[in-house]
Design brief:
With about 450 residues, the protein is α+β, with helices and mostly antiparallel strands. It contains eleven helices and 20 strands. The longest helix has 18 residues. Bound molecules: FE2/S2 (inorganic) cluster and fe (ii) ion.
């Protein structure tokens, strides 16, 4: 052949090129990807409390937000109390984003109707007070409103049926003495499921965050650990990854409580080189759907001895904890060093899950998606999904953590097998102390971990 003849493709080899046969896009996963009112996934998500805003970002003006596909307005009344209502005034649809915050609620800018935080129409000042149509509308019509709770700098809302409102859950990591919990948020321009998946995908840490994009967290994460997945109480999923770092065994635990609560180990405090006993998650985080094609991670970043170092207690530090890079970077830098945003937003606004090829390392993802599907089905039959489990008066027990034990490889033994045994022992042991109070439970776990380090796995 002459040197300017195109190479590679010949009629005989053209059959290997499957672009044409695969050019139809795969379907999206309608059942779990849609979040709007009345959709399967949307009704399921409306069974839970979700964070919807950061308290310090709400000033004296109403704030338009979108959550679960609904356009809403968050506002303060009577100084520091909070209200969350549908955006459009039931008179003639003016936006309450332009309303006025007052002592008793929010007043529409257009004709001055005043609404209580529960949506009651308190005043229709343009109408004669005893005019029948105005009386009827005040009695029979309400502005849509949702209950909200402010807790440690985040504002949570419950958007489901009012008679089914669950208890507001409080988590153990928020009750650790000396831990600073700083609220942060990270927006994603894609469906919530593809953001959520990463928490049950410990292998992406090895590739995306380490081998591909220079170590965005610690060097030790560049090894694939021994993986193990657990499901507990039908809504709590755990993925452990146990790695060898010199003479240490590093057990890192990611967790998901359905539908969208996530924790992991630390981002920067643990690298496997130093002993660590039940260090807690660097974030306590929810992946909240804005609509079908956008989501926001609302979270606390956790700083202190058991979390990440205080030096990361900045806006940029929180972004590094969230995804290994700051959010605002040049397109070139994003291509050279992609982080979670690039990985999950790059799939498109709603990933076509039906075109995936899930592998054994994706087991955590298969497990949790299957459980969501089951719970959606049950909900359609009238059975509501479980709320985060807690024992008695204790806060919700969580397991996101790092433990680094000085357990060197055993002569003549398969070290991968040994690491898997260490990971399993650390996890199983953690489940033993759930009935104790926070401090007693932590102390018992830490003591037992030190015992494993000294005496080996019993
Ligand atoms: S549109 Fe709100 S009071 Fe008229
Ligand atoms: Fe990640």
């Amino acid at each position: 052949m002459s040197s300017n003849t195109p190479d590679i493709v010949t009629p005989a080899s053209a059959g290997n090129f499957r672009g044409y046969h695969q050019s139809q896009p795969a379907d999206i996963d309608e059942e779990i990807a849609r979040v709007g009112s009345g959709t399967s996934g949307g009704e399921y998500l409306r069974c839970f409390w979700h964070p919807v805003f950061i308290t310090s970002e709400l000033g004296d003006l109403p704030q338009a937000i979108k959550i679960l596909g609904e356009e809403l307005v968050l506002f303060r009344y009577s100084g520091d109390k909070l209200g969350l209502v549908h955006k459009y005034c039931p008179h003639r649809r003016a936006s309450l984003e332009y309303g006025r915050c007052e002592d008793r609620g929010i007043r529409c800018c257009y004709h001055g109707w005043l609404f209580a935080p529960d949506g009651e129409i308190l005043e229709t000042p343009g109408e004669a007070p005893d005019a029948e149509p105005a009386k009827v509308v005040r009695e029979r019509t309400r502005l849509g409103a949702y209950p909200v709770i402010e807790y440690k700098g985040l504002i949570f809302a419950y958007m489901g049926p009012p008679d089914q409102m669950p208890e507001f859950p409080v988590y153990d990591v928020l009750e650790i003495e000396d831990m600073t919990n700083r609220p942060y948020k990270a927006p994603y321009t894609c469906n919530w499921i593809q953001v959520l998946d990463a928490i049950m995908d410990p292998v992406h840490t090895t590739f995306l965050h380490s081998q591909n994009s220079h170590p965005q967290f610690s060097e030790g994460m560049s090894e694939i650990g021994e993986l193990k997945f657990y499901e507990r109480n039908e809504n709590h999923f755990l993925g452990s990854s146990t790695r060898r770092v010199d003479d240490n065994a590093w057990v890192r635990m990611n967790e998901l409580i359905l539908p969208n609560f996530t924790q992991a180990g630390s981002a920067f405090a643990a690298d496997g080189t130093q002993s660590r006993y039940f260090g807690r998650s660097c974030f306590t985080r929810w992946v909240v759907p804005v609509d079908d094609e956008n989501s926001i991670a609302y979270a606390w970043a956790n700083f202190g001895e058991r979390g990440d170092p205080h030096q990361y207690n900045t806006k940029e530090g929180c972004e590094l904890i969230e995804q290994g890079e700051v959010l605002d970077r040049s397109p070139e830098e994003k291509q050279r060093y992609p982080a979670d945003s690039e990985a999950v937003e790059g799939m498109g606004s709603i990933s076509t899950h039906k075109g995936e090829n899930l592998m054994p390392t994706d087991r955590g993802i298969s497990l949790y998606r299957r459980r969501i599907r089951q719970q959606i089905k049950d909900l359609k039959q009238g059975e509501r999904p479980p709320q985060p489990w807690r024992h008695g008066e204790n806060s919700v027990r969580t397991y996101g953590q790092d433990t680094v034990l000085n357990l060197s490889p055993k002569d003549g033994e398969n070290d991968r097998k040994y690491l898997a045994e260490i990971g399993a022992a650390v996890m199983d042991m953690q489940f033993q102390y759930e009935e104790q109070g926070n401090e007693a439970r932590d102390a018992a776990i830490i003591e037992k971990l030190k015992d494993i380090e000294t005496n080996g796995i019993s």
